[in-house]
Amino acid sequence: MTDFEIERVAFKKQDIGVWAQLSARNTNWPVVYVLDDAEKTVAGKRSRLSDVYVGESRNAAGRMLQHIDSSSKSHLKTVRVVIDSTFNKSACLDLESYLIRLLAGDGTYRVLNRNDGITDSDYYDRERYQASFREVFEELRSDGVFTRTIPEIENSDLFKLSPFKSLSPDQAIAVEDIVEGLFENLEKSKLSTIVIQGDPGTGKTVIAIYLMKLLVDIAQSEPGNDIDQDSMFSEFFASGYPQILDGLRLGIVVPQQSLRKSIQNVFAKTPGLTRGMVMTPFEVGESTEDFDILIVDEAHRLNQRANQASGPQNTKFKEITEALFGTDDKTKTQLDWLRAKSRHQILLIDEAQSVRPADLPLSVTRALVQDAKTASNHYRLASQMRVRAESDYVGYVRRLIGAASIEAKTAPLIPEEFAGYDFRLFDSVVQMHDEIREKDAEFGLSRLTAGYAWEWKSKKQPAAYDIEIDGCQLRWNSKAVDWIASPNSVDEVGSIHTVQGYDLNYAGVIIGNDLRYDPETDSLFIDRDSYFDKKGKENNPTLDKVYTDADLLQLISNVYAVLLTRGIRGTYVYVCDPDLRDYLQKFIPASAVETE
Predict the structure, then answer these.
(1) C-alpha dihedral over 106, 387, 581, 488, to 10 degrees?
(2) In this predicted model, what pLDDT tens digit does every residue of 253-273 receive, in sequence order?
(3) What is the pLDDT of residues 115-171, one digit of tens each?
(4) For residues 70 and 64, what is the distance between their CA atoms, to the nearest angstrom?
(5) Burial class (CB in 10 A: 0-12, 13-18, 19+), 147
(6) pTM
(7) Exposed/middle/buried for 287, CB within 10 Å: 0-12, 13-18, 19+?
C-alpha cells in the first residue's frame, strides 16, 4: 500500500501562495487534486457539489494559479490535493482517470474535465497503486466529495454510459481514425458514412457517447488551453481543428426508448452535452434544420416502413418521407431519413441484434457494412468489455442459438468451458430466481429476463401474473424505462426491450416455448402461438412482406442471443421446451440440484 495524505486548501491566490511555501513537494512533485465548489453547512456537513474538476500535476501550486485565471474554473472554492511520496506520473494519471470516472458516475456533479485524457495504461507496480486508490476514494467520500459507494456507482447507468470511460486499444484506434477522417472530410466538404461493427459487450454505445463528448470538447477548446500531450487525441485540440467544428450541428440518435432516456440523463449532467442532443429518428426527420454529424447507436434497430406503435407515428412516417423525398416512397427507411438530414453519419451496428420485423432488413445492414469496407470507413471492434470469460462466449452462444451473424454450421458444435464465467443451466426456475436474488444482494444488477413467450396480462391488470412455470408466478417488468434500476426489478422479468443495450452482473434467462428443438432433424424451430410480441411477428402489407417461420426463427434466435449476452459475471438459463433443454444440456453446464 502507498502512504498518501489529502491536504485541503482554499481556492484563492493568497491561500495557494502560502501553501506553496510549506513544502517543496507542493511545487515539485507529482500529485492529484480535486477542485469543487461545495460549501459547508452550519452543521459542518458538505452540501451537494455542482461542479468538480480532477487534475494531476508536477507543480500543483502553479497549476492551481492557472485554474484560478480560467473562466471555466474560477468559481470553484476548494482544492483537495492527494500527496504520496511514492507517486509518479503514471500513477497520478491513473488515479486522475479513476476519480473522474467515479465522480461522473456518482450522479451528483457536473464533471468539468474533457474526456480525452482518460487513460488505461499499464505501468510498474500498477496493481499495488490501484489497491490504494480505493482508500483515497473512501477518504474523499468521508469528506463529502462522493455520495455513494463504489459498487453503487459502478452499477449505475451514469457510470456505465459515462463519456469519461477508458477506451480499449481497438476502441481508441477506431475513435482516432474516425475523428481524423471526419476532419479530412469536413475540410473537403465530402459526405461520409462510417460503420462501427461489434458484438455485444464490445462497447459500441460507449464509443458513441465518447465521440460526442470528444467532438464537443474539441469544438469548445479555446486558444491557450492546456493540451494533455499524453492523450492520443491531443493533436485535435491544436489550432485549426476547433475552428473546423465551429458552428456545426451534432446529434446522437438512439432508436430504443429506455436506452435513449438513460443517455439523456447522462448528457444532462455533462458540460457541453444536453438532453436535446439525444434524439429519436422521428425527431431528426421532423427537424427544421439539417445536421453536420449524426452518431447512430444500435443502427440495426432503425425502422423500415412498417406499422408503427401508434397511429400518429404512422402518419409521421409518411409525412417525413414526403417532406424529404417529395413523395411517399414506401421503400425509404429511417436510415434514408438520417442520410438525407446529415452530411456525415457514424453508424454503430450489430446485425445479430435485430429483433423485430420492422428493424432494418439484414440485407440493408450487410450492404452498409460492405459499402463501408469498400470506402475504408469500416471499423470492427473485437475487445470484449462486458463478459468476463476467457474465450469467445458471445460467439459460442450465438452459434448455439442460431443468431444472424453466424452462418450455417460448417463443423459440429463442440462443448466449451469458460473459465471465470458462471454459465449454468437450471432445471428449476425457482432455484434460478433464488440464485439471482442472492447475486443481486452480493453484487447488485442481477435480473431475470425472458423471451416474449407469455402474454403481458399485468400491463392492464397489475395484480395478474404473466409467467407461470411449475407453480412459480412472475410478472413482466412494471416499467418500460430504467426498469433495471427500479426497486422491484429483482422480482420481475425483463423483456428484450428493457435490457437491450444494458449490462447486468448476472442474467437469468428464461427461454420460453417460442423457441423449440426438433431432435429428429437436429434443428431449432418456432412456435408462433407461444410468441406474444405482436410487433415481433407482424407482417408488412405496406411493403407486401409476409414473415415466414424461418424469418421469425432468425429474429427470435437474435432475441435470445441478446439476452444471453447481458451478464458480466455470469448467465443462468432455464428452458421450457424439454427437447431444447435436453439439447442445451450438452453445451451448458448443469447447475447443482439443491437437496433438503
Answers:
(1) 0
(2) 999 999 999 999 999 999 999
(3) 887 767 788 999 999 999 999 999 999 998 999 999 999 999 999 999 998 888 888
(4) 10
(5) middle
(6) 0.92
(7) middle
